[in-house]
Amino acid sequence: MSVQSVDRALDVLEALAEHGGAASLSQIAARTGLPYGTIHRLLRALLDRGYVRQESDRRYALGSTLVRLGGAAERLVGTWARPYLEKLVALSGETANLAVMEGNFVVYIAQAASSRRLRMFAEVGRRVLPHSTAVGKVLLAARPDAAEVLARTGLPRRTPHTVVSAPEMLAELDLVRARGYAADLGEEEPGVHCLAVPVRDGDRVVAAMSVSGPAGRIDALDRAELALGMLAVADDFGAEVGPALRPGRPAPVP
Amino acid sequence: MSVQSVDRALDVLEALAEHGGAASLSQIAARTGLPYGTIHRLLRALLDRGYVRQESDRRYALGSTLVRLGGAAERLVGTWARPYLEKLVALSGETANLAVMEGNFVVYIAQAASSRRLRMFAEVGRRVLPHSTAVGKVLLAARPDAAEVLARTGLPRRTPHTVVSAPEMLAELDLVRARGYAADLGEEEPGVHCLAVPVRDGDRVVAAMSVSGPAGRIDALDRAELALGMLAVADDFGAEVGPALRPGRPAPVP
DNA sequence: AAGAGCTTTCCACGATACGGAAAAGTCCTT
DNA sequence: AAGGACTTTTCCGTATCGTGGAAAGCTCTT
Predict the structure, then answer these.
(1) Is A52 helix (H, G, I), strand (E, B) or coil?
(2) Separation of CA A251 from chain center
(3) B131 in Cβ contact with B207 (< 8 Å)
(4) Is the C-alpha dihedral spanning B241, B242, B248, B251 positive or negative?
(5) Which tens digit of pLDDT belongs to each residue from A197-216?
(6) pTM, whole model, 2 decimals?
(7) Which nucleotide is nearest to B39 (CA to C1')?
(8) Do B67 and A70 lie within an 8 Å CB cutoff?
(9) Which of A56, A62, B73, B158 could lock onto B243 through a cystine, CB 3.0 to 4.6 A?
(10) Which of the 8 DSSP states describes residue A235?
(11) Residues of A whose CB is below 8 A from B75
């Protein structure tokens, strides 16, 4: 139920992105499994529009049109979210993020950085699996099909603390639902702890907001109290812009 | 020599961007001239991949995948350009930008900010008409079809200093070609002056670099001397990464 | 100089996207 | 509330448009 050539063109773009933004035709072929002729034709189409540029060594790289388009998309999402994320920064002193579910992945779509010297690096645009992050757990906890998602993605170990057993994760999701927030205690990145709460549009969870920082500083905070404050911010945000984040369809199966 | 459905899908994305990132199906139809059924099918394909989101009022908006891709593209272009832009900042003390021509527009694709308190705001991703900016004049001066571009875009007045007559602008472009750099003396934004130089790949101008800041500070500098320094930096940059900026096709006519 | 590897072009086939038109849904207006 | 106008979504037969294998053309090694 989609357009083959568009789908493949997007595959090509994403293959480029995963190669750090630049790759040769054969590298793209290896990654996408598409025939050379096809890739070349798609690249020409993207080239004509500035979505891709060709370097002097014939490799292909993501082009400047994407900078503009991505900027527009980011501004769109960012303008809505910024004031609320800044409230979270004020509340916690740590970097705040907004994330949504995209297929089986979690994508960070906006950020407000803490003003502290030691702080989380910008990760707007980053895609991670849900099982090893606080935002992921919140989003997963809201899905009736959480078990299937985990079955599809697996629970790869990211650090010694990552929860790698599906039943254990499902039990933790019950806990998340019960207390209304999720924690990540160095499960995605060693030494980095996070707290996340759901953003609701009515009774539906459409996104998650989190604060993250060095383990020591996060653990020094009263977790339940901070979560309470975060929930208030997230509820305000959800009431204002929730509908705009609502996904078009339930869950694309890979 | 391109793929119809990919081309149209990109038209749809760009139509969305031009509507401020969100638009209804019929608005997209009005802008692209494509039949409803076709647009709907393309939107579904983009929806499935997260390039577009559907809001609760059924309007379509640019999606979060674009944030990720745009970020990757920006990082890519930025990495190449940063060291050179920073040299310009060191040279002038002002914010430096890299811009390319995209169709009839000028797009800023990278920036290095001045460390001064009063400085230009980030404008990566911004699209402006060429006649009212220093980078625009440099890029226009390099095109044999400058007159046609001006005829297509017009020369809308942005400030009291904007040059709004095409013959006058063409005369100024001659001057730009002759002396090798262009100036914008408050023609795009009141009180903001810029100096721009071409980035060459061989004998071809593929981009422009500029420094911009408050009128007083820019005017205090020796313009010819600064331009000379900037040209040296731009030539180095062009020699290293010029080919990657080379546009794929001449100029899409709107 | 010649080869190996990668990129680009070509072309006949048929799968795929097209798009008009009808159905379904939504939102004003009376 | 109910009708009507508009917008969005679905449908389906047809012709077009994209497909991909294979050959030609480059470029950089051995």
Answers:
(1) strand
(2) 15
(3) no
(4) positive
(5) 999 877 778 889 999 988 88
(6) 0.72
(7) C19
(8) yes
(9) A56
(10) H
(11) 21
